[in-house]
Design a protein that fits this description.
This protein is of the alpha+beta class. It folds into three domains: 5-269, Immunoglobulin-like (Sandwich); 274-442, Roll (C8orf32 fold); 448-656, Sandwich (Jelly Rolls). Helices cover 15% and strands 41% of the residues. The protein has ten helices and 37 strands. The strands form eight sheets. Strands 6-5-9-3-2-11-14-13 form an eight-stranded mixed β-sheet, with no helix packed on it. Helix 6 packs across helix 7 (351-364).
Length: 657
């Protein structure tokens, strides 16, 4: 799925191979006349050409800067492609310095109603900058005069003080690209590693030596000038059940290895090994120093674990206590900048405040517990080859009790002991301990979820159905269902809302069990009256036994998918229907009995039917045994869902005797 191309940009006298350059701008008749993109006839827009250039150099303020120039030309094929005419450029800043966008130009080329070629230039006054948060803004502009068939072209320059964060290049986008090219110029004072990620290979890679490309205050250096290009790049189409798109887009990334100060000749090694990260975290005031505060937590947890004799009892008591003690303040990250004592006193804290408190408290109680650093699903996967602390944005606890590990997150009061939110189930986590080297753990296969629906129903003489629907939710499904209920002021309000969402079902009575017993399955018993028949007449009743949570569409629609289907966890969902019929009715058309399976025991969908006198039972099971299915398994998964949807369309027919 992910191919890695390692290119060490060492300054070693590169042989001149080719000279890359920007494409020619301006009106091109064939581009305006183009009516569709033959390699993707469903495309609403396509990049005709795209060019980027990044260089470490001296800017006008006589400081070292990363200077990034971008130039693109896009064909807008129809009005659904108009969104590509709005350009957004994120920029970053610190308290002292900021990125700057300059030299913005834009043009729209089109044919008017008389078939004459026209162009409209972007008005500089229509370029806006919006503040997103303290350290981030967005520069926005919209190309003028968009219409079906037009071609837009735009340029800009971004000057950044953050040369250590060298500009990545995404070859793949939400629309296809005919050609995309990226040049980089690295002075010999800097060494980077470059990695190509994603499913597509480079069409062209060239390198050349640029003599004395960097000069500042008597310091001079030659440069490595490298060019990367791809052509005929398919659009990236996001689909359900995936992690961050940036994990799968074909793109080239750069990691700083080392650099030499041009003015002092002092060399700094930036790229670290995991042992360096371990050492840094253990001495960090906002991380390792907090994990050493066992004396503080021993005193505070004494009353919480009083009378508890086993490690499990102590762990569950501390976990439940901190869940109620803290309220998450919506801040992420792995550091506790103000410390866990201040956070505890305030009863509120960040992810790190809460879970570093949990780790320290458990260790103070004698429960061996380690920190696990991870990157959430939206944040992207971690680069395991080059340790970078900023890759992590979340920390949880790993409690080791009686030979088993329990992964804990006390930031959500509805999470049961050992259960993580879906956002945390992403690839790998790095376990950090104060007394041993760090190591990796798999997060994507930690959990399972299940639910069982039992329907005991009776068909009445008047064509109504009455009975009981009993639902039991386990694991993550219990968590999400509890969360849905807790959004309401009361259980009664939840039931009223549920009743309104089920137009053919009237809820007569209800009972919710184990709502606050997080380590137990959540139970839901509904006494109902149902209009479940699609068609009714005196002789025949048409009934669909899948009326409860019926699946009508296949979530998998791509012809091919070159990234995994990632559920986050394995699942097992079952439904059992027991139905009693009046004496005057018999089953004319029973439901289909099917059994479909994925290769290598990857999952299944099966139904079963049994009838006796005026009663019948019908059951089905949908099981996925893995959290992740790889691209080569996608066709089988897609076909299984096609069969599920088709099966659940099938009706039963009851006939009067």
């Amino acid at each position: 799925m992910k191919k890695l191309l390692l290119i060490t940009l060492l300054f070693i006298g590169l042989q001149h191979l080719a000279s890359a350059q920007d494409f020619k701008e301006g009106f091109v008749q064939e581009e305006v006349d183009m009516q569709r993109y033959d390699k993707d006839t469903a495309a609403h827009a396509v990049y005709l050409n795209e060019f980027g250039n990044s260089r470490i150099d001296i800017a006008g303020d006589d400081h070292i800067r990363l200077i990034y120039k971008y130039h693109a030309k896009i064909k807008i094929l129809d009005n659904k492609g108009f969104s590509n005419g709005t350009i957004e450029i994120p920029i970053h800043n610190s308290d002292d310095v900021s990125e700057e966008v300059t030299d913005i130009t834009g043009t729209t080329y089109y044919k008017d109603d008389n078939g004459l070629m026209q162009k409209i230039e972007l008005d500089p006054k229509k370029v806006f900058k919006t503040k997103d948060y303290k350290y981030g803004s967005t520069v926005k502009f919209a190309l003028p005069g968009l219409r079906n068939g037009c071609v837009i072209e735009f340029r800009y320059t971004l000057i950044s003080p953050y040369w250590d964060s060298f500009r990545k290049w995404e070859f793949q986008d939400e629309i296809p690209k005919i050609y995309s090219q990226y040049e980089v110029h690295i002075p010999g004072f800097w060494t980077f590693n470059a990695s190509l990620r994603g499913p597509y290979k480079l069409t062209k890679t060239t390198s050349e030596l640029e003599r004395e490309c960097f000069t500042s205050h008597g310091s001079k250096s030659d440069c490595s000038h490298l060019t990367y290009a791809m052509k005929d790049i398919p659009a990236f189409v996001a689909e359900d059940y995936m992690t961050s798109p940036k994990n799968f887009l074909s793109a080239i990334y750069f990691e700083l290895v080392e650099w030499t100060n041009p003015y002092t000749s002092v060399k700094t090694l930036v790229s670290k090994e995991w042992k360096d990260i371990d050492r840094q975290l253990k001495i960090e005031d906002a991380f390792g120093s907090q994990l050493k505060r066992k004396d503080l937590m021993k005193e505070r947890m004494a009353a919480v674990i009083a009378g508890k004799t086993t490690e499990m009892d102590k762990a569950t008591a501390i976990y439940a206590y901190l869940q109620k003690w803290y309220k998450w303040n919506d801040y992420w990250g792995i550091y506790s900048p103000d410390g866990i004592k201040r956070a505890m006193d305030a009863h509120t804290g960040s992810i790190a405040d809460i879970n570093l408190t949990l780790i320290t408290a458990l260790n103070a109680a004698g429960v061996n517990t380690e920190a696990v650093l991870l990157s959430t699903r939206e944040h992207g996967n971690i680069n395991t080859l080059y340790p970078v602390i900023s890759d992590f944005n979340y920390v949880i606890a790993k409690a080791n009790i009686d030979g088993k590990s329990y992964y804990l997150d006390a930031t959500d009061p509805l999470l049961s002991f050992g259960l993580l939110q879906l956002k945390c189930l992403n690839d790998k986590g790095r376990v950090i301990s104060l007394d041993k080297p760090s190591y990796w753990v798999e997060l994507s296969s930690l959990q399972k979820t299940s639910e069982i629906h039992t329907l005991d129903l009776t068909l009445l003489d008047n064509g109504k159905i009455k009975g009981t629907i009993t639902n039991y939710y386990n694991g993550y499904n219990a968590y999400t269902h509890r969360k849905a209920i807790k959004k309401f002021n009361s259980v009664d309000e939840y039931i009223e809302d549920l009743d309104a969402k089920l137009p053919k079902i009237k809820i007569l009575k209800s009972n919710i069990s184990n709502l606050d017993s997080l380590n137990q399955p959540l139970g839901e018993i509904l006494e109902v009256e149902i209009d479940a028949f699609e068609n009714m007449n005196k002789a025949r009743l048409v009934f669909n036994p899948f009326f409860w949570e019926k699946r009508t569409t296949n979530p998998f629609k791509l012809a091919e998918r070159d990234y995994p289907v990632d559920w986050g966890m394995a699942s097992d969902n079952r439904m059992v229907l027991n139905m009693h019929l009046p004496a005057q009715y018999a089953i004319e058309t029973p439901p289909q009995v099917v059994a479909f399976a994925l290769p290598n025991n990857g999952g299944m969908f099966a139904t079963n039917f049994d009838s006796h006198d005026n009663e019948f039972s019908f059951s089905n099971i949908t099981r996925f045994t893995k959290a992740i299915y790889f691209p080569e398994e996608y066709p089988y998964l897609k076909e299984l869902y096609n069969k599920i949807v088709l099966t659940e369309k099938t009706d039963m027919v009851f006939k009067k005797k």
